[in-house]
Amino acid sequence: AQSVTQLGSHVSVSEGALVLLRCNYSSSVPPYLFWYVQYPNQGLQLLLKYTSAATLVKGINGFEAEFKKSETSFHLTKPSAHMSDAAEYFCAVSDPWNRDDKIIFGKGTRLHILP
Amino acid sequence: EPEVTQTPSHQVTQMGQEVILRCVPISNHLYFYWYRQILGQKVEFLVSFYNNEISEKSEIFDDQFSVERPDGSNFTLKIRSTKLEDSAMYFCASSRGRTSLTDTQYFGPGTRLTVL
Questions:
Q1: Which chain B residue has its CA at the smallest distance from A46's CA?
Q2: Quick one: which of A113, B34, B80, B108 is 20 to 30 A from B63 by CA?
Q3: How does pLDDT run across A71-100, given as a tens digit for each residue?
Q4: Interval A25-69: pLDDT, tens
Q5: C-alpha span between B16 and B31 (Å, rounded)
């Protein structure tokens, strides 16, 4: 069975500082991996995804994530936080070979940006 | 940019009542999904739908749940007799194809269901 674990339900960073949101996955097959963001009162928006092409994936709003098979990690980073980055971030995984194409989400990390 | 829409944004109902949550997927998409998120918990897969039939459903999706694409544009989730534990945010998603480098699931803003 596949799963993701997000370390830290809440993360606070100062505006302009590095953002690092941690995600580790468990999968018996090479997975697809995703980061979604949820702004208040909005739906889930895809930030970026890994589908077995380049291991460093660049997404929207300056975010990127690196797939590290040896560490089973897919951490999300952004060099310089902006106030508008305050939101909840979900790491997710899916099995490319599974018929149902379902996405399995982590519990989420709420990112707080300090002025 | 096309987006998935959901109505209503918030639905309050009495336990035992039937509710229908509505979604309008992106127009050229062929795969449809429902997920739910109980407050404070993970987003969980409920069901996937393709070619007018259910592709897969989770253990959560029991006989009280059903999905339908009644008119080629709407995609609905019906809960026949709601229970308190059905209170959650329900997300609809759609995709043009299966997840790949070029295709992905797009999510709607969600319907918050409160069962009293």
A1: B106
A2: B108
A3: 999 999 999 999 999 999 999 998 887 767
A4: 998 888 899 999 998 877 889 999 998 778 999 999 999 999 999
A5: 30
| Neighbour-count burial of B77, counting CB atoms closer than 10 A to its CB (0-12 exposed, 13-18 middle, 19+ buried) | buried
pLDDT reported for residue B102: 76
Query: Residue A38's closest CA among A96, A107, A95?
Result: A107
Token pair belonging to A45:
């928006």
Contact between A109 and A10 under an 8 Å Cβ cutoff? The reply is: yes
Q: Any chain A CB within 8 A of the CB of B104?
A: yes
Residues 6+ apart with CB under 8 A from A73: A22, A23, A24, A25, A66, A67
Handedness of CA A101, B57, B38, A22 (dihedral sign): negative
pLDDT above 90 (res B9): yes
By residue count, chain B amounts to 116
Mean pLDDT of B55-69: 94
- Rounded-to-5 percentages of helix, strand, coil across chain A: 10, 55, 40
Q: Which of A42, A99, A105 has the CB atom closest to B109's CB atom?
A: A42
